[in-house]
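Protein in question quoted for reference:
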Amino acid sequence: MPIHERLFKRTDYVIIHKKIDKFAYNQIFMAKLRCIIVDDIEIDRLTVLAYVKKFPFFEVVGVFASGIEALSALETEKIDVLFLDIDMPGLSGIALRKKALDVPVCVFITSHSEYALDSYELDALDYLVKPLHFERFSHTVKRVEDFMEMRSKASLFESSIGGDTVFIKEGHSETKVKLPEILYLEALKNYTLVVTGEKKHRVLLNIGTLLKDPNFQAFVRVHRGFAVQKHFITKITAQEVFLPGNVAIPVGRNFKENLRNLQ
C-alpha cells in the first residue's frame, strides 16, 4: 500500500483514506460533543450558534437567553461543553458554571475582560471577549477538541488495591501510588500533577474532575491551581498553607472558606 494511504478499521466496515487529517479522523471516530449556548443578547446568541454549526462534531442541545432557562437542560441532559455569557440578569454565567462544575468544558464569552480571573478559578477552558471573531473562536474549538480527545483516552485508575492505592498510567507504563502519600495536586493547563514526597506524576485530567473522584475526598481545594491533602497541612496563613518540608501552597481568595473548618 502506498505510504500516503492509511487504513482505519471500525467494527462494521473498513475505510481507506488518502492523506486523512485529524479533523476527518475525528468525524469518523469522535462522538458528538453536546453543547448549550447561553447569552441574554440575541445577536450574540445567534453569532455563537452560527460559529458552532460550522463544526460538525458539535451537537447543539439548546440555546438560552438566561442562565435560569439553561438550568433545566443541565438537569436533564448530558452536556459536554458550555458556551456562556457572564453578565446576565437573574443568574450570571459564573453562578451557572458553579452549578454545573461536572460539565467537562466551559468557555466564557463576554464583553467584560475583568471577569477573566474568576472564570479560570472555575476551570474555564477559555475566555473570549466580545465582539467575537471566527478566527479566535476556531482556536478555542481546537482547544476543546484536543482536551476532549485527551480526556477520552485518559484512564487514571486501572485498579484500586485495599482502598488506598491506585495505579497511575504514564505513557505505556503504570505506577502504583499510595493515596495517603500524595501531598498535593497541582493544575497545569489540562493536566494535573499528582505530587508525592518522591515524585510528580502527570495525569491527563483537570484538577476539578480529579477532585470529584471518591479516592480524593481527603483533599481540599485551596486555590484554582492547587488542592492539598488535609492531614499534611502543618500551618495555615491568610495567603498560604504549609506542608511537610516547608512546602508553601498559595491560598486563593475564593477558596479561603474551604479552610475555615481546618483551623
Q: What stands out?
A: The helical segments are 22-29, 42-52, 67-76, 93-99, 116-120, 134-153, 207-211. The first strand starts at residue 5 and ends at 9.
